[in-house]
Design brief:
It comes from Castanea mollissima. By secondary structure, the protein is α+β, with helices and mostly antiparallel strands. Helices cover 31% and strands 23% of the residues. It is elongated and about 120 Å long.
Length: 204
């Protein structure tokens, strides 16, 4: 049997999906890919009488999902240092765990807050991040960084307007309920007063 491990690779990036697919050129070659419950993928090939591992992932500490926890990122280029690094303005949630090279607890904002963005909202450049999960992501290739910032601000303004409308609606509804309750109470008092006067008139 031939042992040609040449692959056909295809990359798709459109409005519906972003996928990478690999397939063997030599279809006579037996191979299998297994994803276990811990998230490890093993690609094996059949050799004589047994399966031999050809490739597996994750291969590095940073390949493991959420290995560094919230508000931190995994940098495989830290050399001999710990791979997990807190975002600017944050510190390890547990110094002890961090010292033991366990970053799963992540980081918390420093108690004496550090201003990162200076003039309000913005972005801090952080390098060597792992690519996030894109299972529900949408890529708009025609959107520039400037257009993205503009769209983000518009979306934020739209949300603020919706919250303002919701707040006004709740206030109006509250006033209506209070008015109705007040009218019902006044009506009851008037009826009681009239009934009392009628009884007095009848007694005379």
């Amino acid at each position: 049997m031939s042992t040609d491990l040449t692959f056909n690779n295809s990359f798709v990036n459109n409005q519906d999906e972003i996928t990478i697919m690999s397939s063997l050129v030599n279809l006579e070659f037996l191979s299998k890919a297994v994803l276990d419950e811990s998230g490890i993928v093993q690609w094996s090939s059949w050799h004589d009488t047994r399966w031999v591992e050809y490739w597996s992932a994750p291969q590095e500490f940073c390949d493991k999902y959420s290995s560094c926890g919230p508000n931190s990122y995994c940098n495989p280029y830290n050399g001999v240092k710990f791979e997990c690094t807190c975002f600017p303005g944050f510190e390890p949630k547990s110094s002890r765990d961090w010292y033991l090279r366990d970053g799963s607890g992540g980081c918390l904002r420093k108690k004496q807050g550090v201003s990162i963005c200076n003039d309000g909202e913005g972005f801090v450049k952080v390098e060597h991040l792992k690519v996030p999960d894109t299972s529900i992501a949408h890529v708009n290739m025609s959107l520039s960084l400037q257009k993205y910032d503009y769209a983000k601000k518009n979306d934020l303004n739209r949300k603020k307007r919706m919250l303002a409308i919701l707040g006004v609606s709740v206030a109006v509804l509250f006033l209506l309920v209070v008015s109705v309750v007040y009218l019902l109470i006044m009506r009851k008092k008037i009826i009681t007063l009239l009934a009392s006067r009628l009884e007095q008139s009848s007694a005379l």
